[in-house]
Automatic annotation (TrEMBL):
InterPro entries: Crypto/Photolyase_FAD-like_sf (IPR036134), PhrB-like (IPR007357), Rossmann-like_a/b/a_fold (IPR014729), UV-DNA_repair_photolyase (IPR052551). Pfam families: DPRP. GO terms for molecular function: lyase activity. Keywords: Lyase. This is Photolyase. The keyword Kinase does not apply.
């Protein structure tokens, strides 16, 4: 895979004002950069710098974004603009109805009436925009500085330095380095508790053994209520049931939501982080990815807060470590992978998966209970937790060979926290193994037994996870073996697949034929 050279995206790590240039900057703040830690804002001066935020049609429509995401971003942008105004900045703000189609045209409109020396912007989260910014100096006739996004904890250079020369880029080793670097959950140079990893304690399935506390909702304020109306009118066909919109739209609001998580859910986060639960879409998960990803929460702060909870004795080490691993480890690692391997990464398709997406991806109307539940809540709320994304919807897509590009587009559209830097490696790399193993050491493929073990969906399902063939057989079972059979050429050299491949090979030929025949039937019927 070709790697992206840093110069390709025109990153600058220094601030031009600190390099002695007197400047009048137009600072463009994107919808996922709503933080005073945004490097383009860190030294902004209300006396000479102006700020621009724009709700532009192109960004709102390049995929069929979930309406929850649009409302969250537009409302959070409007609140952030008010905050900047209160700090004395002149803020240029284009609302959706102002009909500004692109970020470039928004910049041009403001530049035309003023005498700015440069446009300053923090690096965007998608290659598409980073690439576009490179054309801007010529198109706008002004200097355009794209600053490295210091809100992340591993710079792209640091990630590359870690990755260069390694045969395999395993998250675990990256994560340990991050723990050491930020001195999080460390006891000198050793991990607290003498172990880096508590995954074994953190994989308990769900048998209704705990009460799940109800979430505290944030009632929409006047700004959010207005945005809900505008988005409903402008995007009538997008997914998202806005009658259920209950998200925070400010830093303070997001911090309160995180406080709630620390107090009521963190202690059980680790234990049930892989659980699949009929009664709750969120179980004990934190529901903060959408805030972290748009700038309302700071990743280092949330990790430090969770560490403090453990040090105060408010949760087990396994819970704190499980959470910190996700934010300090997975989140940063995923971003490093994206920028290291784009743009070629987006075209990877290791298994040659090209089957069109079934229509029910846009309705949730399938008889498979686990899938139906995960898809419906993804469409309605823009949220599904990790195991639903990976081992239910992703697993089904992998086993049935759904078209990689279409699956990635679907994930980018439906989730409230979806930006390409995080969605693509997770979907293409982790769930679909379409990068051939750059990230995962083996495909996350599983039969119905895994889903049964992790939760209580199967009890409500018309299929039985114990059955391989026949009308009431769980489709995941035969589809799993079909996947192993069809992809054996590509999997047999994978040491972690050896046992499974051997099991399949030594199976009775008649059984194999019956399973594969039933799998074809399941494909026709469900995919
Ligand atoms: P929790 O389970 O409470 O975890 C805490 C935090 O850890 C999350 O908020 C998130 O910031 C971080 N995190 C955990 N796992 C990952 C991961 N694999 N990659 C990056 N960050 C992680 N996450 C997104 O933010 N945006 C996406 O578009 C996205 N797409 C995904 C697609 C697939 C196929 C898969 C398998 C995972 C995807 N994830 C994505 C990762 C993960 O599923 C979500 O971050 C998580 O479900 C968000 O819910 P939460 O805040 O309750 O997370
Ligand atoms: Fe899902 Fe199969 Fe269980 Fe039904 S039986 S819920 S399809 S795993």
């Amino acid at each position: 895979m070709r790697r992206l050279a840093r110069t390709h995206i025109g990153l600058k790590s220094g601030d031009p004002r600190k390099q002695g240039m007197s400047a009048r900057n137009l600072i463009l703040v994107l919808g996922d950069q709503l933080s005073l830690n945004n490097p383009a804002l860190s030294d902004a001066d209300p006396a000479c710098d102006h700020i621009l935020l724009a709700e532009v049609t192109e960004e709102a429509t390049y995929v069929r974004h979930n309406r929850h995401k649009l409302v969250l971003l537009f409302s959070a942008m409007r609140h952030f603009a008010s905050r900047l105004k209160r700090k004395g900045f002149e803020v240029h703000y284009f609302q959706l109805g102002d009909d500004v189609s692109t970020l470039k045209s928004a910049c041009k409109t403001v530049l035309d009436g003023h005498d700015f020396e440069r446009v300053l912007v923090c690096q965007p989260g998608e290659y598409r925009l980073a690439h576009e910014f490179r054309q801007w100096p010529e198109a706008l006739g002004v200097e355009v500085e794209v600053l490295a996004d210091t809100r992340f904890l591993a710079s792209l250079e640091a990630f590359d330095a870690w990755a260069d020369g390694r045969k395999q880029l395993r998250m675990e080793y990256f994560y340990r380095d991050m723990r050491r670097q930020y001195d999080i959950l460390m006891d000198g140079d050793k991990p607290c508790g003498d172990r880096w990893n508590y995954d074994n304690e953190n994989r308990v399935g769900w048998r209704q053994q705990e009460d799940i506390p109800p979430r505290v909702n944030v009632e929409p304020d006047a700004v959010t209520a207005a945005v809900i109306e505008e988005v409903s009118a402008a995007f009538p066909d997008n997914p998202g049931d806005l009658s259920q919109f209950r998200l925070a739209v400010t830093q303070t609001g997001a911090e309160r939501q995180f406080d709630w998580f620390c107090e009521h859910a963190l202690s059980r986060f680790g234990t049930y982080q892989d659980a699949l639960v009929e009664e709750s879409p969120w179980v004990f998960h934190s529901l903060i990815s959408m805030y972290l990803n748009c700038g309302l929460l700071d990743p280092l702060e949330v990790c430090r807060r969770v560490e403090q909870h453990w040090r105060n004795g408010d949760c087990e080490l396994s819970a704190a470590e499980g959470f910190i691993r996700q934010v300090l480890g997975w989140r940063e690692y995923i971003r490093g992978i994206y920028w290291r391997f784009m743009p070629d990464y987006a075209d990877e398709n290791f298994f040659g998966a090209e089957r069109p997406l079934p229509d029910w991806f846009w309705s949730g109307e399938t008889e498979m209970r686990c899938v139906s539940q995960a898809v419906r809540q993804s469409l309605d709320l823009g949220y599904a937790h990790h195991i639903q994304r990976l081992m239910v919807i992703g697993n089904f897509s992998l086993l049935t060979g759904l078209d990689v590009q279409s699956v990635c587009d679907w994930y980018l559209a439906v989730y409230i926290d979806a930006y390409e830097w995080v969605e693509l490696p997770n979907t293409l790399g982790m769930a679909l193994y379409a990068d051939g193993g750059s990230m995962a050491s083996k495909p996350y493929a599983a039969s119905g037994k895994y889903i049964q073990k992790q939760g209580d969906h199967c009890k409500q399902c018309r299929f039985k996870p114990s059955k391989m063939t026949g009308e009431d057989a769980c489709p995941f079972n035969s589809l799993y073996w079909r996947f192993i059979d069809r992809q054996s050429d590509k999997l047999e050299n994978n040491p972690r697949m050896g046992l499974i491949m051997a099991n399949w090979k030594k199976r009775n030929p008649d059984d194999k034929t019956a399973i594969l025949k039933w799998a074809d039937h399941c494909l026709d019927r469900h995919a």
